[in-house]
Design goal:
about 200 residues; alpha/beta; Rossmann fold; 5-stranded parallel sheet; 9 helices; about 55% helix; about 10% strand; kinase; dephospho-CoA kinase activity; ATP-binding; P-loop_NTPase
Length: about 200
């Protein structure tokens, strides 16, 4: 398997912007959020198991997962949340590992928003953290998602702290700066990763 760079960062840090810039350089991006949606898509084992446990309430009229209902359910029933995590986390993990193994670019980027929270650091060879000031996170999330300040605070409280993320980082992108500066940081890291990928390849 090639070199895997785990990309993470808190809400509103700009992970997608960073991932897109690496993708523009021909680097394959594997997104945990996309995989998480796939494992509960119509026709999946994940969705069938959820429907078997919770019944019709868990499904929308068109057969898709009723995410809003399920979110409410697991929020108020810790046992159900545990069951759901035990079902989905191994599926998501397996698919992430498989996607990384199949990547054909010189290295790949594994984007996992909850990398630290779910203790998935071992899936990557290096951890890249997109870091921003908390005030920037709040401002960006309010503007992008149109949610209340209380909701943003609740999300931040549920996520790893900035210090916890930085503690596991091999590399850090400071995204409080202008876009040109962001580009410079990504260009430099891309060169570093190409060198590491070549070493990784010969060392296998």
């Amino acid at each position: 398997m090639g070199l895997v760079i785990g990309l993470t960062g808190g809400i509103g840090s700009g992970k997608t912007t960073v991932a897109n810039q690496f993708a523009a350089k021909g680097i394959e991006v594997i997104d945990a959020d996309v995989i998480a949606r796939n494992v509960v898509a119509v026709g999946s084992e994940g969705l069938a198991a959820i429907a078997a446990r919770f019944g019709e309430s868990a499904l929308l009229p068109d057969g898709q997962l009723n995410r809003a209902w399920l979110r409410e359910r697991v929020f108020s029933h810790p046992d159900d949340k545990r069951w759901l995590d035990d079902l989905l986390h191994p599926m998501i993990r397996t698919q992430m590992i498989s996607a990384c193994a199949q990547a054909r670019s010189s290295y790949c980027l594994l984007v996992v928003p909850l990398l630290v929270e779910n203790n998935l650091m071992a899936l990557a060879d290096r951890i890249l953290v997109v870091d921003v000031d908390e005030q920037t996170q709040i401002a960006r999330t309010l503007k992008r998602d149109g949610v209340s300040r209380q909701q943003v605070d609740a999300i931040l409280a549920a996520q790893a702290t900035r210090a916890q993320r930085l503690a596991v980082a091999d590399d850090i992108i400071n995204n409080d700066q202008p876009e040109t500066e962001l580009q410079h940081q990504i260009d430099a890291l891309h060169q570093t990763y190409l060198t590491l990928a070549a070493q990784h390849h010969t060392g296998e």
